[in-house]
Design brief:
A three-stranded mixed β-sheet has the order 1-2-3, with helices on one face. A hairpin with a 6-residue loop joins β1 and β2. It is built from five helices and three strands. By secondary structure, it is α+β, with helices and mostly antiparallel strands.
């Protein structure tokens, strides 16, 4: 539902919250942020302005969803195509295949939250002691 996101898979079954795998629409992002075509997509992934744009877009598009439906974290991934077996002949996304291929990325999004919670807990324990 966003002009900056061409495909998305939401993951979160049996997890405390949802995370999203996002395939960006680089052409729209470049146009919006006035970024030259000389800059590679691999470099754009790390641009703070791109991350802020996508963060704001996710928040804006999810404002009417229930809290548990909104993704807490997201990551950019490669496009889902028939050649990488992530799309059916009818062009439907094969969620199970996407989740299988990107299971490490999904796990890292959950682990990053655990690390931040653990760090905050350690700070609180040090302040009490």
């Amino acid at each position: 539902m966003s002009r900056f996101i061409s495909q998305v898979v939401l993951c979160g079954a049996n997890k405390p919250y949802n995370v999203a795998l996002i395939v960006p629409d680089w052409k729209s992002i470049r146009t919006e942020l006035k970024i030259s075509d000389e800059i590679t997509e691999e470099n754009l992934v790390n641009y703070k302005t791109v991350k802020v744009l996508i963060d704001n877009e996710v928040k804006k598009k999810c404002k009417n969803l229930k809290k548990y439906e909104v993704p807490h974290f997201w990551s950019f991934v490669a496009p889902f195509t028939q050649s990488n077996n992530m799309l059916t002949p009818k062009m439907s996304i094969r969620r199970y295949e996407v989740i299988r291929v990107y299971q490490d990325v999904i796990a890292s999004m959950y682990e990053s939250d655990i690390k931040s919670v653990s760090f905050n807990d350690l700070e609180r324990q040090e302040n009490v002691a």
